[in-house]
Write a structure and sequence with these properties.
Blueprint (H helix, E strand, L loop, with lengths): L2 E5 L2 H5 L2 H6 L12 H10 L3 E9 L2 E10 L2 E4 L11 E2 L5 H12 L5 E7 L5 H11 L3 E14 L5 H6 L3 H10 L4 E5 L4 H12 L9 H13 L3 E8 L2 E11 L2 E9 L8 H16 L4 E6 L3 H6 L2 E11 L7 H18 L1
Parallel strand pairs: 4-6, 11-12
Antiparallel strand pairs: 1-2, 2-3, 3-4, 3-5, 6-13, 7-12, 7-13, 8-9, 9-10, 10-11
Amino acid sequence: MIAIEYHADLKEVQSDAALATLLSSEMQQTPFDRLAWWQGLAEHCGIEPLLAVARDGDSTTVLPLQRANGALSGLANWYSFRLRPVASPGADATGMLTALARDLARKAPRLTLAGLPDEDGSAELVETAFRRAGWIALRETCDTNHVLHLQGRSYDAYLAGRPGPLRTTLKRKTAKVETRIFNQFDAEAWADYEDIYAESWKPSEGSPDFLRGFAQAEGAAGRLRLGVAYAEGRAVAAQMWTIEGGTAFIHKLAHREDAKPLSPGTVLSAALFREVIDTDGVGLIDFGTGNDGYKRDWMEEVRPRYRLEMIRPEAPQNWPFLAKRALKRLAGRGKRG
């Protein structure tokens, strides 16, 4: 018998041994599936969490959600590379998610999950479960994820396959920039990062406290790779990476606009790629979401991220939306005819 429960207080989850273990770094070797990540979002990013949990004996499946303006959506924001359900090993995730979806019909007539991957089957899993539970599930591509599979290559072998202009830039600029990589949190280096970010082309940081707290925790766990580039002793570029489970995640990068002629960001990227490939021995590098042109110089594969809009057809408030969608579909058929 599958039991359903909901947790708005993440301290409750932390004190639940089974849930806390499932959502720990020992079980989830990626930041975005962990309780600590969701706690940070709740504490620093104004997110109101709601973990939907299905249990069947010793098996557990968690769907991380948040409440906003009376609606439910996935527990993620711009810092999250992706969102997906988390299931204990061997769990019947489809059956448990289907039971969860049936129960969620009592809580919301509509549910949006964005950033779902499908290279691991997550988007298909969620779509199937909600449809079995009587929801209309509409899937569309909402973002892209650039990754690099090393397939045993050294840094030098990898670099040899990069575009010619990138390799030429590195030959010309590397000697003009000094780089340092911190494997633990360093307050001075972090201050440099924040100063550089403020003078970069990037928009203002959404939640500096969240990012600093995450960097401190990852540094304490030995997973942080914080790179800083210097020109004539001045910090001019900075990047925040983390590594775990054979994957390097590129979270943040910035350079000062007045240092752009030195290409400090490119030189620093190369130093970090060398570090995680040759020293840390990762097999995958994940450049997060967004289709920025510079990512294509470093990455070799683009994976889609999906949005699933789940709708209860019997809810009157959904009827105008469904009617508009039906008319749009009919109009499209008419044009094709």
